[in-house]
Amino acid sequence: MKYKRLLILLLVMSLWGGTMMFADSAAQKVRVFVNGAEVEDAGIISEGKTYLAVRQLASTLQSLVFWDETTKKVTVFKPNVHMFLFQDNTIFGNVNKGGKYTFKVFAQIDNLLTDIAAVKVSIFDPSGTEKVIQSQNVTTSKDNFWFRTEDVKYNFDSAGKYSVRFFMKVTANEDWKLVSEKTITAQ
């Protein structure tokens, strides 16, 4: 009787172990790095093909992603957004820690192949606190346009990297999507 139970237990464990090994070989996790940073929940390899999480990858690449439920279609748009920072007529970049500066953000947007509802420019201090520089509804359907903020006065209180980020909203109900970033270093 003991041998029969042991034999059944051994058979069940063998089947379970074989199933787990097959499942592991059928779908293996993939580590993906973009600009040296590892992407969370990157993807899997199954039957020789690599599958990546589109929203995660689009967010990392600062793109807009759309899901159409009726057609079951994913569309990714990557507009070119070039930001320039100016203090008066001088290009603005690295600053002194503790300094108060007045500057404006000038953005050139092209290759925009979808309509958008709004844009926003924010600055994030080294601890991640956001200060909105300017937010504005956009009523253009062009594939390119220019955007300039009003002058902003900002105190660079601590040393570190400050990020000026450009966001877009496709519709008024959606979340902001990051599409460009510029770094200012305070020393």
Automatic annotation (TrEMBL):
Keywords: Signal. It holds the Pfam family Cu_amine_oxidN1. Residues 34-111 form the Copper amine oxidase-like N-terminal domain. It comes from Paenibacillus phyllosphaerae. InterPro entries: Cu_amine_oxidase-like_N. Residues 1-23 form the signal peptide. This is Copper amine oxidase-like N-terminal domain-containing protein.
